[in-house]
Q: What sequence folds into this?
């Protein structure tokens, strides 16, 4: 009966709260919108964190999965890295699966991008090479057909077939069941379609979906001379497994560490130097829990998302402080009603429950609208992080964590903005309230203490957010406005692939020279050049070098890039001394190189590099390369805009053995869009089997700053929203204070106070609140900014200009908010104020 009575009174309180909110639609709309923005932002960011960090893979008993890694090592690892998770070579994988004892099933996988077109502008399929036990270990069943097995993954297997994702099956085959058994052309090779995976399975890499999966043994057949399997210094695989019953990741790590010396002794790359081999043999294997999969997206965005979640949480606190002020004002208006209820015998607890019912309704309505808003925000964020080269796939379905988080936010906000006003409203003495006039009881300064404290906290938290947002925005501006050493405007990158043409190295070199000559002759093209490494692409090639006959001052490992003639002119990175590469630099002539200023600073102590001889340091079986420096060029960013200018050696592409793919950089003063058709026509006119991909250089630079743009955009929005909420809160408190002190102000004016003194009194009150909030906020902002120091560029967390801008901006929007109620008070007619009770 007690339970039934409690539920009955709860329903009564909720019905009463609904009636009150229906009578105040403006208040209800403002409160719901404020909460929805705060709850929606927090829920959206938590949804992304949940998807990339907390949620387990959609496979059987995901908690039993563990990833094999090489333990953190200062010198790990050397060689060629060609995948997002390049943790192992094939030789290492072969040794690990033979010698491990911890896993009931173990598999390797490596990402790869297949070409679907037979020539022309490319269309890609996101693919993976997977070992035979991949699907069996994960416990994935086919939706149609069959999946890959151990029998499909045998050395020299050729083309046993591929497995398609559900989305790719629908996109390419229209969901037709007859797709099973048909042939699919990948990189010009025909693979039989064996089966289709369920719609819920996206692989083991969170943030990346897949289109096709092929067995590892097919890689040499498909990749040809670019195959990684036989090369012990090519890192392209990751390894995961399912732990045996009774085994833990810690126990597995101990077993793998015990067999590590044997594994690495048996797989030393033949081209390693003695020093590199010594470090290599010292590597230790370990095992890490990986029920949530692996993720490059997680590594890049986990810290920014946590930072944004903290920022969104502060916005929600500010919104709750605003609503608490509104609830306090409503409670003050209802003082007489509450006093009558108390006088008639209502308990304080009963009244608190009734007042909290209204807060709970507001919190639930804000949470519901915020949850809907969160779906749009999170979908937008995923699309924001997606680029043409790096499509992002994130499972944004709702799970128990997301529901719990949203429900928790609703309860928390209810307590934050509803409990204190309810306690405050029911604390008054009924007799005192009944005897007092409506204003005399509320006009005392002590009654404004809590509301002032709420405004101060809003100003302080808003300053923290404004400082953070300005730091992120200014960091992005620093990156966008710095001199990278080249002119990105007007540059177009044309990447080609001729692997399917099966050309010899000499014939490829001839083709590339012919293509470059034809591209340079296209009307509208100012200059063009070939480049093996495109700046700011994230790619890298480095080698250890020495100066023959000179004592080494330490390990020297500069970056390298093979480029053609006119590269520096096309990029807009001038030669300072010496000459450019020319037609006399052939494979049979002495090798030449051009170095940058950072090279001379770091390795030559600023001395002239002209005539210097550079020799690469290689291991057994790998020929050493000797270059003579013939030029010095201006510093330019190499891998990322965030990197410092690094020592770089440019070699002549005409003297380097050609690969099956290369890139041409084209500069034009005209609109680049019309050039695409001319370039495509010219290239395909030479050979229609060439695969082409276009990208403008500015878009590549922009894509390289996705993390910085995300932080600047969202933190800026949250900072402005917080400042707006704080301004509204200050306006509300000053307006309420003026209304409650109306009689006092009327008396002051009647006794001779001029309008200016009344205006100064009200503005002074507002100024004190803002000043206290700014002082507290400064301390909090400097402390909070240190947590974000790794995400800043060219700024210190305590940057005085940023802090000054934030203070000025917040003061500029906050103080005028009190001007309107202050001017109303100054224009007040004393006779009108004194006629009121």
A:
């Amino acid at each position: 009966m007690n339970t039934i009575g409690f539920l009955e009174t709860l329903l009564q309180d909720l019905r009463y709260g609904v009636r009150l909110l229906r009578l105040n639609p403006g208040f209800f709309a403002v409160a719901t919108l404020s909460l929805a923005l705060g709850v929606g932002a927090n829920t959206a960011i938590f949804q992304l964190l949940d998807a990339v960090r907390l949620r387990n893979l959609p496979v059987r008993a995901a908690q039993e999965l563990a990833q094999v890694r090489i333990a953190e090592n200062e010198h790990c690892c050397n060689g060629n890295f060609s995948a997002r998770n390049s943790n192992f070579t094939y030789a290492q994988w072969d040794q690990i699966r033979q010698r491990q004892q911890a896993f009931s099933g173990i598999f390797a996988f490596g990402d790869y991008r297949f070409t679907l077109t037979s020539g022309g502008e490319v269309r890609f399929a996101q693919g993976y090479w997977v070992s035979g036990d991949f699907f069996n270990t994960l416990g994935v069943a086919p939706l149609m057909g069959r999946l890959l097995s151990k029998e499909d993954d045998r050395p020299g297997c050729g083309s046993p077939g591929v497995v398609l994702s559900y989305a790719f099956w629908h996109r390419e085959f229209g969901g037709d069941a007859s797709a099973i058994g048909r042939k699919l052309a990948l990189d010009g090779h025909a693979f039989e379609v064996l089966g289709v995976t369920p719609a819920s399975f996206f692989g083991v890499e969170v943030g990346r979906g897949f289109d096709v999966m092929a067995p590892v043994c097919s890689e040499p057949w498909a990749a040809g001379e670019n195959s990684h399997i036989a090369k012990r210094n090519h890192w392209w695989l990751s390894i995961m497994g399912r732990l045996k019953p009774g085994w833990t990741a810690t126990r597995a790590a101990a077993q793998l560490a015990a067999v590590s010396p044997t594994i690495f002794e048996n797989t030393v790359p033949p081209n390693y130097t003695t020093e590199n081999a010594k470090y290599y043999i010292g590597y230790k294997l370990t095992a890490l829990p990986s029920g949530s999969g692996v993720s490059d997206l997680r590594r890049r965005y986990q810290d920014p998302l946590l930072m944004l979640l903290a920022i969104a949480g502060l916005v929600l606190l500010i919104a709750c402080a605003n609503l608490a002020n509104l609830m306090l004002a409503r409670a003050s208006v209802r003082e007489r009603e509450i006093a009558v209820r108390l006088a008639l015998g209502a308990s304080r607890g009963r009244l608190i429950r009734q007042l909290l019912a209204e807060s709970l309704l507001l919190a639930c309505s804000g949470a519901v609208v915020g949850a809907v808003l969160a779906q749009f925000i999170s979908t937008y964020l995923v699309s924001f992080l997606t680029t043409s080269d790096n499509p992002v796939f994130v499972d944004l379905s709702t799970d128990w964590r997301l529901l719990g988080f949203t429900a928790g936010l609703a309860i928390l906000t209810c307590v934050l903005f509803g409990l204190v006003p309810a306690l405050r409203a029911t604390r008054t003495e009924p007799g005192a309230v009944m005897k007092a006039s409506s204003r005399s009881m509320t006009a005392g300064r002590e009654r404004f203490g809590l509301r002032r404290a709420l405004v101060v906290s809003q100003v302080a938290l808003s300053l923290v957010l404004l400082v953070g947002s300005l730091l992120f925005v200014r960091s992005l501006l620093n990156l966008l406005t710095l001199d990278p050493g080249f002119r990105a405007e007007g540059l177009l990158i044309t990447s080609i692939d001729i692997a399917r043409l099966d050309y010899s190295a000499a014939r490829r070199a001839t083709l590339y020279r012919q293509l470059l000559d034809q591209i340079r002759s296209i009307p509208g093209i100012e200059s063009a050049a070939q480049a093996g490494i495109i700046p700011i692409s994230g790619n890298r090639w480095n080698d250890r070098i020495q100066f023959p006959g000179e004592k080494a001052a330490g390990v020297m490992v500069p970056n390298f890039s093979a480029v053609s003639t006119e590269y520096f002119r096309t990029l807009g990175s001038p030669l300072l001394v010496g000459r450019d590469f020319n037609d006399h630099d052939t494979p049979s002539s002495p090798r030449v190189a051009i170095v940058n200023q950072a090279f001379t600073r770091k390795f030559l102590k600023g001395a002239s590099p002209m005539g210097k001889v550079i020799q690469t340091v290689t291991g057994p079986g790998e020929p050493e390369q000797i270059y003579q420096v013939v030029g010095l060029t201006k510093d330019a960013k190499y891998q990322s805009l965030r990197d410092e200018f690094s020592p770089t050696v440019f070699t002549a592409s005409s003297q380097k053995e050609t690969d099956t793919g290369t890139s041409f950089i084209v500069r034009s003063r005209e609109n680049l869009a019309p050039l695409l058709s001319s370039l495509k026509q010219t290239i395909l006119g030479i050979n229609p089997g060439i695969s082409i991909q276009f990208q403008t250089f500015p878009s590549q630079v922009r894509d390289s700053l996705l993390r910085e743009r995300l932080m600047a955009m969202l933190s800026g929005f949250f900072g402005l929203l917080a400042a707006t909420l704080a301004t509204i809160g200050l306006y509300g408190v000053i307006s309420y204070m003026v209304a409650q002190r109306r009689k006092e102000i009327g008396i002051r004016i009647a006794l001779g106070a001029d309008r200016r003194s009344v205006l100064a009194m009200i503005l002074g009150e507002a100024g004190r609140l803002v000043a206290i909030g700014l002082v507290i906020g400064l301390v909090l902002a400097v402390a909070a900014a240190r947590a974000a120091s790794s995400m800043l560029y060219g700024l210190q967390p305590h940057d005085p200009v940023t802090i000054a801008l934030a203070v000025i901006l917040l003061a500029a929007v906050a103080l005028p908010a009190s001007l309107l109620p202050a001017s109303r008070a100054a224009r007040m007619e004393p006779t009108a104020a004194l006629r009121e009770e």
